[in-house]
Amino acid sequence: MRLMSPLLLLSTPARGLLPSLRLSSSVRSFLPAKTTATFSSASPSEKPFPSPETIRKAPFMSQVKLGGRVVPLLNQHQDSTPAPPEVEETLNAMMSSSDGIRGFFVAYLTGPEPPLPVPPVLSLAMSKVHDPNDLIDLSIMNVVMPTAMAATYRAAAEEGGETDAMEGSNASMAKTSEVTAEKGTLVLEELMRFAEGDPRFGRVDDQVSKVLRVAEGGEDEFWTAFFEKWGYEEPQRRAIRDCMEAIKP
Fold first, then answer.
1. Other beta carbons within 10 Å of 184
2. Model pTM?
């Protein structure tokens, strides 16, 4: 498997790919200004959130910037304390589009916050998604990809090889990927809990089983192609297998 720079961030749809690595200032500097201009990165206290209609129509990078404003507020509501109505409204609007789902989770998974249980307001927003397929696929990828990257960087660190990443050593990039994978795992486990009472989420367990089967050397049309596209070899497959076994009930 080739090492990907932590600067790399793909913005393809959920049935495409979303590496869960940090969106750095270096990445932003390569983005055209018109891509990031829809939403300000100002804090909520400095600028109100856009209307739900505006959020639903916003492009991916604007959703990332909006997610960066929302995520810090979520940590203030880890308990049963209700989140402000505007936060709940914003999350609901973001979860109503593929770009919104992807943009939010880029901010959520790669931010500086430590791995924490999914906040109630986010759990509620995810549970209300009209069609959960994009959310399911993306949530699985957001565990698979950083898990594979962590294994790759960890192996390179143990061999004493040089990283092709621009923002840290192999060991530090392995740790970054592991934290991202842990955050993604908490989200995926929340979706699996939804499946216990909502048949719309029943596909989660099926997809996790398929990933596990491919990691063990079996076949599945989509996930086999996914693994081959990213060059997952035995170290990555073993790490993914261990992760999926821990998640699967």
1. 26
2. 0.82
Q: Which is higher by pLDDT, 239 or 26? A: 239
CB-CB neighbours of 234 under 10 Å: 12
204: number of Cβ within 10 Å: 24
Q: Between these two residues, 204 and 158, which has the higher pLDDT value? A: 204
Distances (CA, A) of 247 to 43, 48, 170, 192, 243: 35, 38, 26, 9, 6
CA–CA gap between residue 220 and residue 224 (Å, rounded): 5
- Considering Cα of 159, then 160, then 165, then 169, what sign does the dihedral take? positive
Q: What per-residue confidence (pLDDT) applies to 83?
A: 85
pLDDT at 160: 79
Closest CA relative to residue 4, chosen from 202, 156, 223: 156
Return d(Cα 192, Cα 204) in angstroms, integer: 6
Q: What are phi and psi of 13, to 5 degrees?
A: -60, 170
Please choose, from the candidates 85, 103, 188, 111, the residue with its C-alpha nearest in 3D space to the C-alpha of residue 145: 188
E-only strand ranges, the chain: none
Of residues 194 and 74, more confidence is placed in 194
- Which runs of consecutive H residues, i.e. helices, occur in 50-97? 52-57, 60-74, 85-94
**Mean pLDDT score, 183-196:** 97
